[in-house]
Each structure stands twice: as C-alpha cells, then as structure tokens.
Amino acid sequence: MENILRPLIVVGGSVLLTLVIGWATDRLLRKADDRHSETPLWGLLRRGRIPYQLVLCAAMLRGSYDEARLLERHSAGIGQTLTLVLIGSAAWLVIRIAAAIVESTYTRYARVHRDPARVRRVRTQVTLIMRVVAAVVGVVAVAAMLLTFPAMRAAGASLLASAGILGIVAGVAAQSTLSNMFAGLQIAFGDMVRIGDTVVVDGEWGTVEEITLTFLTVRTWDERRITMPVSYFTSKPFENWSRGTPQMTGIVFWHVDHTAPVELMRERLRDILRECPAWDGRDYGLAVTDTTPNTMQVRALVTAKDADDIWTVRVTVREQMIRWLTDQHPYALPRVNTADATLAPGFRQDGNRRNGEHARRAHEPPRTGRG
Description:
Blueprint: H1 2-35, H2 41-45, H3 49-68, H4 75-112, H5 116-147, H6 150-154, H7 156-161, H8 163-173, H9 175-190, E1 198-201, E2 204-211, E3 215-220, E4 225-229, H10 232-235, E5 239-240, E6 248-256, H11 262-274, E7 279-291, E8 296-304, H12 307-328, H13 356-363
Antiparallel strand pairs: 1-2, 1-5, 2-3, 3-4, 6-8, 7-8
Helix pairs in contact: 1-3, 3-4, 4-5, 5-9, 11-12
C-alpha cells in the first residue's frame, strides 16, 4: 500500500498544489487588472500562466521525485527530463514576462504621445528589442540544457580550444546574416524606416508590415507581401513617404484641347476638393504645364494628411474632372482635328498663289518694248 500511496501523494500533491497556486495567482492578476485599468500590464501577465504552472510543477516534481520511489531504475533519466522541462518553461516564462512589460510600456507611451511618427518608431524598436531578448533567453536556455549532460561538460574544454577557428569559419559563412542583423539594429535605432511607414521600393508602393533582425516585409496596395533583407534599406536608396510629417502633396495631369476652359477648371477643382473628405484644405492649384500640336497638359496640385488620403484625393479629382468636362465642355476633350487649316496670307484653298498670273508669265517669252 505504501508503494502506491507514496507516489500518488508526491505526484498528485505536486500537480494539485500547482493548480491551486496557479488559480490563485491568476485570480490576483485578474483583480489587479480590474483595479488598474489604466495599464494593461496585469492582463498581459496572465498570458504567462501556462509556463508559470509548468515551472511550479516541474520544480515540485524535481525536488520531491526521489521521495516518491517510482521507477527507481529510471530515476536518473526522469530527473534529467524534469530538469530540462524546468529550464525550458522558465525561459518561456521569462520571455512572456518581458513581453508583457515591454508591451505595457509601449501602450502607455502610445496613449500619451499623439505623434504617429514617434509611436511607429518606438513600436519598431520595441519589436526588435523583444526579438533580441527572446533570442538571448533561448540561447541561454539551450546552453543550460546542454550543460546538464556530463558529456557536454567534458567536451567543453575541447570546444573552447577550437573556438577561435570555429569563430573565423562561422564569421565567413554567416557574413550575410550578420550584416542583416546589424542592419536591423541600425534601422531600429537609426529611425530610417518604421512599422507602418509608407515606402516605395523598386517601384512598388506599400506599407512596412514587419521588421525583424534579418528581413523586412512590405505589404503592397494589392495585398501582396514583399520580403526583403534589411541590409537593402541601409545600402540602397528608397522612398519613405512617412518620414518627418505624414502630410503629402499630389499632382493630377490631364491632356485637353487648346480650347479647354482653364479658369472654369480651376473653379471646378475647388468645388471638387471642398466635397472630398480626404482633402486637408492646405493648398490646391491648377496650371497649364505643357503644350503639344494637338493638346495642352493641365496639372492640378492637391494636398492631404497622409499617403492613403492623397491617393483618394487624386483619383477623386481625376474622375470627377473628366466627368465634368464630358458633360459640360465636351469640346475640351482631346480630339483629332479634321477641319481645314487656316492658310497663310498669299495662298488660296487650292494651294496655288493668288498672284498665279505672275507664275504663268514666268513661262512666257518676254515681250518687246513696242505696244
């Protein structure tokens, strides 16, 4: 009976105590979240309840397993497994706690500061910092797991002896990866590009959706994802439409007939912009910028608060101006001129000179001076 009750009490008691402590801790965090609604920290900490319970259960079982006297032939292997679970769950818990603290700090910062550019910059930095923290904690956890094996500790001396050669080989082999990692840190703290920025890369217009230590993802206007190494943004030029202030100025071109009513087009442009919610009201203008033998080029200048709104304003102005010209002034649209051209003075419609008599006289023999 003792052989049954002892392991049942040890194992069952550890699991039951883990569930009770986890439930009590989650209840306290929930009450703290209700009392302090201004900060999401307590609610975010609840995400770590699973690794927290794993740490408690693994620690209790690791400390009391010898007293259970269960599967004594495999006690060394079971103890090693519990140690590995304890290290892994502890690393998981540390990452969850760090993520909760960082995300809570970012949320409070975003509430206080209304500048979208600064908020995006902090968000980019926080994202990369969390990735670095997760990578460091993961590497430390894996190293701690390996060091629990006696064979790995014995091989440590030989590994350290060859660390110089391995470092050189790894540095040459991972040159591209290391350059991308340093480029990622440079982007995060150099404020070159941020999550949410509108960029133009290789002729593609899109929004920066994700930034890691090695690659960057741009979501285009048609929902495609372009993944590029972060080193691209530190070595090649690109357009960042969100750099500085997000306000933008856009242009719209039309090719119209030379008889187009430019003054009326200016008035119509003003009316269109007043009815367009995306226009920020800063500025507008319309001018003739070029001419060809058949048409003239008219350019409209409009403004908006960001890249998305400037696109809306441009397409709205282009569409409604063309519709207005079609309905009210169809003669102003480009067309092929089939009318007879106005001839220069001295020419008739048939192409001969008006003084054609002189041309005929040139072929006649000269007359004598007599009557």
